[in-house]
Amino acid sequence: MRTVGVEEELLLVDPETGEPKALSAAVLARAAQDEADEGLFEKELYGQMLEFATHPQTDMAELGAEIVRCRREAAEHAGGIGCAVAALATSPLPVSPSINMNRRYQWMAEQYGIATREQLVCGCHVHVSVESDEEAVAVVDRVRPWLPVLVALSANSPFWQGRDSGYESYRSRVWGRWPSAGPTELFGSPERYHRRVADMVATGVILDEAMVYFDARLSERYPTVELRVPDVCLHADTAQLIATLARGLVETAAREWRAGREPVDHSVSLLRLAAWQAARSGLASELLHPRTMRRMPAESVVRDLLDHVGDALVGTDDLDGADQAVTGLLERGNGARVQQELMERTGSLRDVVLECVRHTQGELQP
């Protein structure tokens, strides 16, 4: 059974005002004193962010429990220095990001200018194990049209710098400013994939292979395919669902490859439109269907995703749980909808942030 690991980026905020706080160094120093949390949390580009990574898991319930535990540990360490954590993909309140300066981040700030200074966004990256580079590239080629559906499900960033962005996942639009980010053309073989990456690094526009920000890529550190499109999810159960669907997509793609089925040859132009539509409307209206690239109600597209990966989920005994989770998410809405409803009810972005802190820590039921 394929293993799955999740990396989540969390926002550090003031527990009274909801404003982002550049205190990651202090949180990491406090966490380092706890042997149980050694190596759990990592520094990110900005001082207002904190990242953690789960262990590889085969059981989705155990993965979900670890995500909950990691969030609670992050909240405890943040609380120890007077701040809180929020699983928000962008800050609803205005913020001037503080870059954690080292040689790498300094290079990025100089190379990309304002695009670097405006990249305070929090994502969820899902690593799914693969058996070889051949299988990994076959998977990357075949999951491409389905990735915007994961954006819609995870969308959790409707506000930007104190204003309604008009998008359910504005994070994904900001992330797209990196020159190497976004969907890819078909590669067809590991040789072509690695040659493309090497050519990109050779341009000097990006620093190294780690800065190849494809929507789905081969991990440079692990024998995994990494799906990088989701927003960090407001609720841990949504993150578990995203990880479950990601494994289903990888397994389904690998089976199609082994059966000799060719990937759908949608152009990058169409994939970019599908990603934009998912970011714009999330689950609220319509998405571009991965097979036809024509508009359909979001619920129908999500159900078709579940059907697409159904055999793989049966094989891991995840289908019933995923179906229930999808039904619940469609009924209550994604994180963007929760934030929008909070804003409508309270009229205060501060209250939105503080309520989302409680959701993040599991104090409020999704």
UniProtKB/TrEMBL annotation:
Gene3D superfamilies reported for this sequence: 3.30.590.20
Catalysis performed (reactions): L-cysteine + L-glutamate + ATP = gamma-L-glutamyl-L-cysteine + ADP + phosphate + H(+)
Tell me yes or no: is Ribosomal protein among this UniProt entry's keywords.
Answer: no
Q: Which InterPro entries match?
A: GCL_type2/YbdK_subfam, GCS2, Gln_synth/guanido_kin_cat_dom, YbdK
EC identifiers of the protein: 6.3.2.2
Q: What does this protein do?
A: ATP-dependent carboxylate-amine ligase which exhibits weak glutamate--cysteine ligase activity.
Q: Which NCBIfam families match?
A: gshA_cyan_rel, PRK13517.1-1
This protein is called what?
Answer: Putative glutamate--cysteine ligase 2
Q: Which organism is it from?
A: Streptomyces cynarae
